[in-house]
Specification:
Enzyme class: transferase
Catalytic activity: a UDP-3-O-[(3R)-3-hydroxyacyl]-alpha-D-glucosamine + a (3R)-hydroxyacyl-[ACP] = a UDP-2-N,3-O-bis[(3R)-3-hydroxyacyl]-alpha-D-glucosamine + holo-[ACP] + H(+)
Distance between the termini: 83 Å
Largest sheet: 10 strands, parallel
Structural class: alpha/beta
Function: Catalyzes the N-acylation of UDP-3-O-acylglucosamine using 3-hydroxyacyl-ACP as the acyl donor. Is involved in the biosynthesis of lipid A, a phosphorylated glycolipid that anchors the lipopolysaccharide to the outer membrane of the cell.
Helix content: 10-25%
EC number: 2.3.1.191
Keywords: Acyltransferase, Lipid A biosynthesis, Lipid biosynthesis, Lipid metabolism, Repeat, Transferase
Number of helices: 6
CATH topology of the largest domain: UDP N-Acetylglucosamine Acyltransferase, domain 1
Length: 341
C-alpha cells in the first residue's frame, strides 16, 4: 500500500497545509465514505454538512470552504481537480501487461521500443511500431503499419486495424475497434457497391477512449481525433470525422461521416450528430440531442423531450402532428386581424 504525507501532497499540489502535515494518506474517498488514512474533498457547497461528520484524515478544500472545517486540510484552488491528481498519485490499477508474454505473436519486422509490455495471445503485425513503455493487453491485435506512441496503454482485446496512428500517453479500454471500415457504398440500381476505405485513423496525444467504441477509418483522407480528447464507452465515430482538441464525448453518442467537431466541446450522452456538419469550438450539446444542422456559435444546444406519463406523451404526440395546421391557422388569424386594423 502506497503512503504519502499531507506535507508531500501539499508540495505536489502547490497547496497550503492546514493541521498535521505528518498525517499519512493511502487512498481517496467521498466525505461520507472516508475512513482514517483517506483523503476526501469538498467541491460543492451543498455537501458542506458532511464535513463535520467525515472520518477522513484530511480534506481538500477551497480557501472559502476551509473556514468551515477544523480538521486537517489541503487548501487548493480547485478541490475536484486536486482530487483527480491525488487519485492518480495513489492509483493501484494493475498494468495492462507485464513483460512480453511467450504466447504473443510478433512479426519480425515490428519495432518494439524499450520497456514495452505485450500480453498473452496479442498479435503485432508487420511494420508496427510500438514506442517506449507501451502496454498492449491480452488478446489485442495491432494491424500492419500501425504506430502507437510512447506510454500509451491498451486494455485487453482492443483491435487496431492497419495504418492507424495513436499518439503518446493514450488509453484505450477493452473491446474498442479503431480503423474498421467506414460505411461507404454506392448504389447501382438497388445493389450496394462497396467503396474501399483507404484512409487511416490519426489519434493525437493524451486521448482516452472508452470500452466497446468504434472509430472508423477514413474513406480517402483520415479520421482525426486531436490531442486531449476524451471519449466514453460505446460510441460510434464514422469515417472522416474530425474531433477537435480537448473535446469530451459521453456514452452512446453517434457521429456520422465527415462531420467536424470543434475544440473544447462537450457532447452529452446518447447524442446523434448527422453527417457533413461542422460544430463550433466551445459548444455544449445536452444529452439525447439530435444535431441535424451546422452549429456556428459557441453555446448550449438541446433537443428531445423529457420523460412524462404515457397518456400525456400520447396526447402531446398527436398535438405535435397538428403543429403545421395550427401554424397555418395562426397565420390566417394574423392576416385577418391586420385587415381589420
Amino acid at each position: 500500500m502506497q503512503k504519502v504525507t499531507l506535507k508531500e501532497l501539499g508540495q505536489q499540489l502547490n497547496a497550503t497545509v492546514k493541521g498535521d502535515a505528518t498525517v499519512e494518506i493511502t487512498s481517496v474517498a467521498t466525505l461520507e465514505d472516508a475512513v482514517q488514512g483517506q483523503l476526501s474533498f469538498l467541491a460543492n457547497s451543498k455537501y458542506r454538512a458532511q464535513l463535520e461528520a467525515t472520518q477522513a484524515s484530511a480534506v481538500l478544500l477551497s480557501e472559502k470552504e476551509a473556514e468551515f472545517y477544523l480538521g486537517n486540510a489541503l487548501i487548493v484552488a480547485d478541490p475536484y481537480v486536486s482530487f483527480a491528481r491525488v487519485a492518480q498519485l495513489l492509483d493501484i490499477t494493475p498494468k495492462q501487461a507485464l513483460g512480453i508474454h511467450p504466447s504473443a505473436s510478433i512479426d519480425p519486422s515490428a519495432i518494439i521500443g524499450e520497456g514495452v509490455a505485450i500480453g498473452a495471445n496479442a498479435v503485432i503485425e508487420a511494420g508496427v511500431i510500438l514506442g517506449e513503455n507501451v502496454q498492449v493487453g491480452p488478446g489485442c491485435v495491432i494491424g500492419q503499419d500501425s504506430i502507437i506512441g510512447s506510454d500509451s496503454r491498451l486494455w485487453a482485446n482492443v483491435t487496431v486495424y492497419h495504418d492507424v496512428h495513436i499518439g503518446q500517453h493514450c488509453l484505450v479500454q477493452s473491446g474498442t475497434v479503431i480503423g474498421s471500415d467506414g460505411f461507404g457504398y454506392a448504389n447501382e440500381r438497388g445493389t450496394w457497391v462497396k467503396i474501399p476505405q483507404t484512409g487511416g485513423v490519426r489519434i493525437g496525444n493524451r486521448v482516452e477512449i472508452g470500452a466497446c467504441t468504434s472509430i472508423d477509418r477514413g474513406a480517402l483522407s483520415h479520421t482525426e481525433i486531436h490531442d486531449g480528447v476524451i471519449i466514453d464507452n460505446q460510441i460510434q465515430i464514422a469515417h472522416n470525422v474530425i474531433v477537435g482538441q480537448n473535446t469530451a464525448i459521453a456514452g452512446s453518442t453517434t457521429i456520422a461521416g465527415s462531420t467536424e467537431i470543434g475544440k473544447y466541446c462537450i457532447i452529452g450522452g446518447n447524442t446523434a450528430i448527422a453527417g457533413h456538419l461542422s460544430i463550433a469550438d466551445g459548444v455544449h450539446v445536452s444529452g439525447g440531442t439530435n444535431v441535424t444542422s451546422i452549429i456556428r456559435d459557441k453555446g448550449v444546444y438541446s433537443s428531445a423531450t423529457v420523460a412524462m406519463e404515457n397518456k400525456l406523451w400520447r396526447r402531446n404526440t398527436v398535438r405535435f402532428r397538428q403543429l403545421d395546421e395550427l401554424f397555418n391557422r395562426v397565420k390566417q388569424l394574423e392576416k385577418s386581424t391586420k385587415g381589420e386594423e
